[in-house]
Amino acid sequence: MNPIYKTFSTLSGFYVYDRSTNSIINIERNEFDLLNKNDNQTIIQFKKKGYMKDNSIERIRHLSTDYLKHYLHNNIEQLTIQLTQNCNLRCSIALIWVGMIIESIPIK
Question: In this predicted structure, what is the pLDDT of residue 11?
Fold first, then answer.
């Protein structure tokens, strides 16, 4: 499985969030550009430094998962997903985020 990371920049520099170590790493502009292109050689360099370990989590299951169909088919109008400060982008829901923007998905 591929490592999960998120690149971002600010006025003061370029960074990558490494989910496997739960850390933000200050990187050079060329590393930033290569990571945005998913360059394997750059990822291997970060792996050698102890970052960007392969994603080992295959499935996360909530206690209410078995009841979701029932909830959705019995007039549920809204589903709220609450994130905590401990969120580390390891669940499958986090993988559908685009640029850290959460979109509202209507339930049909």
Answer: 94
DSSP string over 46-94: HHHTT-S----------TTGGGHHHHHTTT---------TT--S-STTG
Terminal Cα distance for the chain, rounded: 33
Long-range contacts of 37-42 (CB under 8 A, 24+ apart): none
Task: Say what percent of the chain tops pLDDT 70.
Answer: 70
The CA radius of gyration of the chain, in Å to the nearest whole number, is 17
Place of tokens 């590393």: 31
Token pair belonging to 81: 């997903």
Beta bridge partners of 18: 5, 23
- For residue range 39-72, list pLDDT tens digits in order: 999 999 999 999 998 877 777 778 888 887 887 7
- Which DSSP category does 12 fall into? T
Nearest to 42 by CA among 13, 3, 12: 3
